[in-house]
């Protein structure tokens, strides 16, 4: 009898230790992204020359330098080199063979970074934008030990070539390029440094001018022009120039991609090859892949692409004779493919990655050394789109004559960066999300469908509704087997308390909202906020030409629908769950407020202009010298639970609630002043305004408006009596500052701002904060009962903090302790400095880099608000500003509760017969 | 049956003990039980009965009425006497919402309300045809005292903040004003 009790007690003790686990790392998610890698700046490299383990290095399109562990895809280190970079920025990343530094070049800065931990070794700024960076792999005996030097070429007004010391970055020599030629690239062989510049002929064609320099002294040795005739009209058809190999080559094609011309650098001879037409399609792209090592075989591969297929040819360079010969060709395959070059000692291997196979050949012969089929890349794509490799970098391991394994980091057309070990995907990084420019929450379409069904039942007559419901339930029965199958799992999960996050269809808490992200390169990607490990769908929605940008804005006009609108096009709607484009555009429900008259206002000529039925109602023009920095209207969906604030003595202070408020920030650059206006956007009246002088306008000014309060932050310059500091201003608007007074409009049911202009009474407080806030947002809950948290993005410390509203409440008493009534309200004495409490940091110890904006959405639970931050990194979490008062947390031990009940039941069963026997005995036994 | 068998063979003391009733019945004419030696109870009893008890005079109906009225007033003013004690108790429990203070307040309400409902029953014993008019005043006093106790309870409940007497209690019934115009920002 004791045994089960002991067992139960043991179980209880065991589960007792699992109580009070933090919800961090459970409810939040973070993608530390780099941005889409470029072929030319990605490679495998050993951070420590003595070890064989290598990392994947890349300098991405977004200007982020990072090292990724090829085993699990985790970022080892990263550095943001150029914030706000795009694919058009020229960037270079080189690593010398056997070196423990990587050298980057972007913008006008060359920097060396420790390959193992990302610490900067040195950096050099150039006067003009960088055109090329190379590493000198000299075999003159002097520089073999220690760090290898770098050669950098900068453009601009004074093009210059500099040789930088590998250890310190100091300039060893520099060579000033003269003339009007545009510097293009720098290349180094074992004995010479070549500078290639583009010379424009009178006819407007380009010619390549090669200047060779002595690598030791930097003196000019030779200069000659390559006779490219009239083939080069633009620099785009230059396939490759230079590269740091045993025999640097120049290669270009004509604009129709019919002839490939190759020149071995240092010679004047040009070999010409006709590009075979495979089928009738025109060759669209020609790429050249050559090994980057000075002592490897001088073989290279030319990769031809048409719209639907690709093939490649391998060429050998005969250094002695100065000739280029075609060795063999790789067959044409449908779809896109990627080639990568890897070296092992002197041997060169080319790896071909297509959407269904990975194949490695040696550069010497066309025999296949290893071939693996690819089942799939395991990434989300649209239904009609297959993920195809765009480019790849590979690392091969050679055993004997065969390739035993190959690891390839492949960038796919979906934007995912995938590592294939042989043919199977090991990890994938959703690098396309790094260029998210707009995002929105949307309810899943399944949830919305049910809502519509229920609405249909509510609005039809009882018999129809009954039949409708009956048929719906019969249809639901089809899912019964699946539900029964999943039942045991659900029960187990229920016991273990892990069932908070169900799947998207059985989401009772509203955590599974769909986040639609539109990216710079025209893709729309959907994530599930409750299960963020997987991309739901990912599709190309805008066909952008290179160099073309768009400014999409994502919104969810109604449940289950995502709408994209941009300057160029009207709104296009998509099904939020499947990503299918909706054929019939649904009427937008935002203006459901039919009774209200619509006023539309927009930025116009540096000011604001509002129109009603195409007639102008008001203008807002900043005073001369001022420009509009930002305009924040009150969110359309901003529910407020209570129209007043209950004071400690149970009287009411009425909030000034007007859905038509907007916070406008203007800046005066001459006077270094910033002005903040709260506007009534119907009448154009200024309800509140404040000027701050001595504002550092180069640092961000963030602002936010919600409910009846606004907040903004700016950086104040140092002045005579105050040092430079960051300030946060919070203002709250009331109908009246007298308690129980609802202002002049009293309790009228409706009002028109055009006819009766009431002015709010504003309380403001200024706080000093330790860091500038680059962006602000506020938590939103379903009914607005839960207290608010102000979400502030701290760019300097790569963090997001959630500041409780009570901390910045403008009603905090100044210069005295709060009275008993004020204490009851939770007000504390005003102190001008707010330190960010470590518990407010939503990201905990992670670094959330480059956050551009934060969006919030209410969950179905009143206590909870969903938060999603995007920019470079993707970060999301769930917040409960007033704690989770309506749901049991993870720290609630269901198992313990059930075990207690079970133990009590067992105890009752055991004790009941004993008690009965005793009672009977007391009746029958007298002595 | 065993006893009858015993009577034949057992000694007299056993017989007396097992069937005392027969012994009592047999000796009922004199004394029920044999007195123990030296007992003189019978004599003293006879002496007491000799002294005549003072005859109590029956009260007149008028006297009876005043008596009843007096008793009724006592009953009526009873709740008032408890008031100071209740007040101190209420003051001591404080205004916080705790199970103890809530129970005390509940009792405070239950007592007077229950008393007022059973008012006829309380005074029915003391009410006669003749004092009915005066009794009305007594009942009114009783009700008044109970109302005082109720007032104390209400004061207490108010102190606890349970009465909807302030503006904030009716805030949920006040609705926000609807604007007749809505403004929408058109990003350009």
From TrEMBL, chain B:
Its main location: endoplasmic reticulum. GO terms for cellular component: endoplasmic reticulum membrane. Belongs to the EMC4 family. Keywords: Endoplasmic reticulum, Membrane, Transmembrane, Transmembrane helix. InterPro entries: TMEM85/Emc4. Residues 1-11, 18-30, 41-50 have a biased composition (Polar residues). PANTHER family: ER MEMBRANE PROTEIN COMPLEX SUBUNIT 4. This is ER membrane protein complex subunit 4. It is a multi-pass membrane protein. It is found in: Endoplasmic reticulum membrane. It holds the Pfam family EMC4. The keyword Membrane applies. Residues 1-62 are annotated as: Disordered. The keyword Magnesium does not apply. It comes from the Eukaryota. The chain crosses the membrane at residues 97-115, 136-155.
């Amino acid at each position: 009898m004791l045994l089960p009790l002991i067992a139960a007690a043991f179980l209880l003790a065991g589960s007792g230790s699992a109580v009070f686990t933090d919800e961090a790392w459970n409810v939040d998610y973070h993608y530390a992204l780099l941005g889409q890698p470029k072929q030319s700046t990605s490679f495998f490299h050993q951070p420590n020359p003595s070890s064989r383990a290598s990392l994947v290095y890349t300098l991405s399109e977004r200007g982020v330098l990072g090292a990724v562990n090829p085993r699990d895809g985790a970022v080892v280190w990263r550095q943001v080199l150029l914030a706000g970079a795009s694919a058009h920025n020229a960037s270079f990343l080189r690593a010398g063979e056997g070196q423990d530094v990587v050298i980057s070049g972007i913008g006008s800065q060359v920097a060396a970074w420790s390959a193992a931990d990302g610490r900067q070794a040195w950096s050099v700024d150039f006067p003009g934008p960088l055109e090329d960076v190379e590493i000198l792999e000299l075999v003159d005996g002097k520089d073999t030990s220690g760090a290898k030097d770098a050669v950098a070429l900068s453009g601009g007004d004074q093009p210059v070539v500099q040789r930088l010391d590998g250890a310190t970055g100091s300039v060893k020599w520099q060579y000033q390029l003269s003339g009007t030629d545009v510097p293009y690239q720098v290349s180094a062989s074992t004995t010479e440094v070549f500078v290639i510049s583009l010379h424009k002929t009178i006819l407007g064609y380009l010619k390549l001018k090669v200047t060779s320099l002595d690598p030791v002294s930097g003196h000019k040795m030779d200069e000659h022009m390559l006779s490219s005739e009239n083939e080069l009209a633009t620099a785009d058809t230059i396939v490759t120039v230079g590269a740091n190999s045993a025999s640097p080559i120049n290669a270009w094609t004509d604009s129709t991609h019919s002839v490939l011309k190759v020149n071995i650098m240092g010679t004047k001879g040009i070999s010409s090859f006709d590009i075979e037409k495979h089928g009738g399609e025109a060759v669209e792209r020609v790429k050249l892949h050559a090994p980057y090592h000075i002592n490897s075989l001088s073989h290279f591969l030319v990769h031809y692409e048409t719209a639907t297929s690709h093939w490649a040819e391998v060429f050998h360079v005969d250094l002695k004779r100065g000739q280029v010969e075609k060795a063999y060709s790789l067959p044409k395959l449908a779809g896109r493919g990627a080639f990568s070059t890897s070296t092992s000692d002197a041997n060169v291997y080319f790896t071909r990655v297509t959407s269904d196979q990975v194949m490695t050949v040696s550069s010497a012969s066309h025999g296949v050394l290893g071939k693996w089929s690819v089942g799939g890349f395991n990434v989300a794509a649209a239904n009609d789109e297959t993920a195809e490799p765009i480019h790849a970098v590979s690392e091969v391991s050679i055993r004997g004559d065969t390739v035993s394994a190959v690891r390839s980091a492949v960038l796919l057309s979906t934007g995912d960066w995938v590592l294939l070990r042989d043919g199977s995907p090991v990890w994938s990084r959703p690098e396309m999300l790094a260029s998210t420019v707009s995002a929105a929450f949307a309810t899943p379409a399944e949830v919305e469908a049910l809502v519509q069904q229920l609405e249909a039942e509510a609005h039809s007559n009882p018999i129809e509704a009954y039949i409708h419901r009956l048929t719906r339930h019969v249809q639901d029965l089809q899912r019964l087997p699946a539900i029964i199958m999943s039942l045991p799992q659900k029960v187990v999960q229920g016991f273990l308390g892990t069932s908070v996050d169900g799947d998207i269809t059985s989401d009772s808490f509203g955590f599974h909202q769909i986040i639609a992200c539109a990216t710079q390169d025209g893709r729309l990607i959907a994530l599930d906020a409750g299960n963020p490990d997987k991309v739901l769908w990912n599709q190309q929605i805008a066909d952008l030409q290179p160099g073309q940008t768009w400014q999409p804005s994502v919104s969810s006009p109604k449940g289950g629908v995502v709408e994209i609108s941009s300057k160029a096009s009207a709104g296009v709607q998509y099904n939020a769950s499947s990503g299918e484009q909706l054929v019939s555009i649904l009427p937008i429900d935002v203006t459901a407020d039919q009774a209200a008259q619509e006023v539309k206002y927009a930025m116009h000529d540096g000011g604001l202009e509002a129109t009603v039925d195409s007639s102008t109602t008001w203008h807002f023009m900043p005073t001369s010298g001022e420009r509009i920095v930002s305009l924040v209207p009150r969110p359309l969906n901003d529910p407020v639970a209570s129209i007043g604030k209950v004071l400690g003595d149970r009287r009411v202070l009425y909030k000034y609630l007007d859905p038509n408020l907007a916070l406008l920030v203007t800046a005066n650059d001459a006077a270094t002043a910033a002005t903040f206006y709260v506007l009534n956007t119907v009448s154009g009246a200024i309800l509140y305004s404040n000027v701050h002088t001595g504002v550092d306008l180069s640092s961000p000014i963030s602002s936010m408006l919600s409910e009846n309060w606004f907040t903004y932050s700016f950086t104040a310059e140092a002045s005579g009596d105050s040092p430079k500091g960051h300030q946060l201003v919070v203002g709250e608007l009331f109908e009246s500052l007298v308690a129980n007074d609802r202002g002049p409009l009293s309790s009228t049911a409706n009002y028109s701002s055009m006819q009766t202009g009431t002015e709010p009474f504003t309380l403001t407080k200024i706080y000093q904060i330790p860091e500038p806030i680059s962006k602000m947002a506020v938590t939103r809950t379903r009914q607005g009962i839960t207290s608010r948290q102000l979400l502030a993005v701290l760019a300097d410390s790569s963090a997001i903090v959630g500041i409780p509203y009570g901390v910045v409440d403008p009603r905090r008493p100044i210069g005295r302790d709060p009275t008993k009534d004020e204490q009851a309200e939770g007000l504390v004495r005003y102190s001008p400095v707010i330190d960010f409490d470590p518990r407010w940091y939503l990201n905990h110890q992670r670094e959330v880099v480059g956050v551009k904006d934060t969006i919030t959405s209410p969950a179905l639970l009143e206590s909870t608000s969903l938060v999603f931050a995007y920019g470079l990194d993707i970060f999301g979490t769930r917040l409960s500003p007033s704690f989770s008062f309506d749901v049991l947390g993870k720290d609630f031990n269901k198992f313990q509760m059930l075990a207690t009940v079970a133990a009590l039941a067992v105890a009752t069963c055991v004790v009941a017969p004993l008690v009965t026997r005793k009672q009977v005995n007391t009746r029958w036994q007298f002595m | 049956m065993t006893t009858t068998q015993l009577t034949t063979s057992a000694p007299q003391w056993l017989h007396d003990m097992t069937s005392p009733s027969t012994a009592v019945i047999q000796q009922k004419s004199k004394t029920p039980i044999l007195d123990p030696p030296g007992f003189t109870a019978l004599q003293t009893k006879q002496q007491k009965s000799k002294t005549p008890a003072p005859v109590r005079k029956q009260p007149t109906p008028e006297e009876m009425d005043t008596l009843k009225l007096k008793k009724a007033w006592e009953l009526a003013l009873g709740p008032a006497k408890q008031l100071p004690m209740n007040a101190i108790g209420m003051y001591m429990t404080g205004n916080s919402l705790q199970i103890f203070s809530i129970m005390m307040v509940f009792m405070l309400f239950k007592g007077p309300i229950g008393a007022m409902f059973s008012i006829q029953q309380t005074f029915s014993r003391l009410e006669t045809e003749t004092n009915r008019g005066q009794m009305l005043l007594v009942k009114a006093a009783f009700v008044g005292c109970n109302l005082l106790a109720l007032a104390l309870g209400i004061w207490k409940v108010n102190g606890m903040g349970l009465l909807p007497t302030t503006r904030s209690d009716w805030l949920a019934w006040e609705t926000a004003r609807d604007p007749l115009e809505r403004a929408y920002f058109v990003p350009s």
